[in-house]
């Protein structure tokens, strides 16, 4: 009877794992197209993880996967931050929920323990990326009208540019390694580059794209090739900035940053001026409580307190490092930096293409964290956590979580 029961449990676990793998693929697509659906599917993934019953595997992943353990540690410290937050319990808990993505790396890693399921997830990523790219072109040429704040994007300009810049980097590596689809991937890379610089014009994505191209050269080329890449990228950027009418936003950003660094009453008139003001007051808040910060969810209230004479209020400083530091102090920042460092450390244990893609994702997260709050923001937070889990899940294939799926 025990044998029959064990067989039944084993079959149920196989079904749960398959359901989890399918849900992950749907979850990736939902991140690109539906905020509400991605929230529902993320909750479903947590339920499926509990039903899988792989508690021993979870503990082994935490011991061996620094990325998963550091992300949970950061979320745990946000929970600690509830105890001394300067805002109401409701506001503090609301902010805690914004960082709930940090707990998803662990269950996602469990369901991505086999190469087959990882391939499903990568295919969902490729298909979703191609779809938003095609939609952007269709909107640009007036064939499709979704009217997203005037931008030819399904999501916001910033979100779209982050996704497409990384997808272009991914396609470059696929083109370099996979001869069968080389032309297709190079075509997708060119389509991504054109979309970023001549259609959507998201400055964050443009900066990420340039740095990812340089990272690609470091990863793939000899010193001579790297020098040539830097030279070519430099020439192309000079031509783009000086002769293209599509470089307006990028040039405005540079000019505004130069003027905004000079104290004056007009700083908040530009987006870069607003960011500079956010960062400056954030540093003042950090200086008040440098070790543990003001507590979870405290940024908006504390920012309003020290800027009572300012007309510009803020819910976040558009910088993840500062956002975490204001709330959780140096301890929280140290954990977040550890979370980033763990990704680089573990990336060196991956095979070449996987290593390169993981390092590109890390660079994308770092640059995005300088100008936005990607972990706190819903779409970017779910996307980064999903992609991080996908990049590093292959390191867990030797764990007992890999049951007989076939």
Furnish the topology, listing elements before pairings.
Elements: H1 2-33, H2 35-52, H3 55-64, H4 66-81, H5 89-98, H6 105-111, H7 115-140, H8 157-177, H9 182-200, H10 203-220, H11 223-243, H12 248-260, H13 271-288, H14 299-306, H15 320-347, H16 352-371, H17 378-392
Q: How many runs of DSSP E, i.e. beta strands?
A: 0
> How many helix segments?
17
Largest sheet: none
Using the alpha-carbon principal axes, give the shape. globular
Order of helix and strand elements from N to C terminus: HHHHHHHHHHHHHHHHH
Indicate the percent of residues in helices: over 70%
Strand residue percentage: under 5%
Q: Kindly, what is the distance between the CA atoms of the first and last residues, rounded to a whole number of angstroms?
A: 24 Å
Describe this structure in words.
The protein has helices at residues 2-33, 35-52, 55-64, 66-81, 89-98, 105-111, 115-140, 157-177, 182-200, 203-220, 223-243, 248-260, 271-288, 299-306, 320-347, 352-371, 378-392. With 406 residues, it is mostly helical. Helix 7 crosses helix 9 (182-200) and helix 8 packs parallel to helix 10 (203-220). It has a domain at 2-154 and 270-396. The protein is globular. Residues 398-406 have low confidence and may be disordered.
Outline:
This protein has 17 helices and no strands. The chain is mostly helical.
Primary descriptors:
mainly alpha; 74% helix
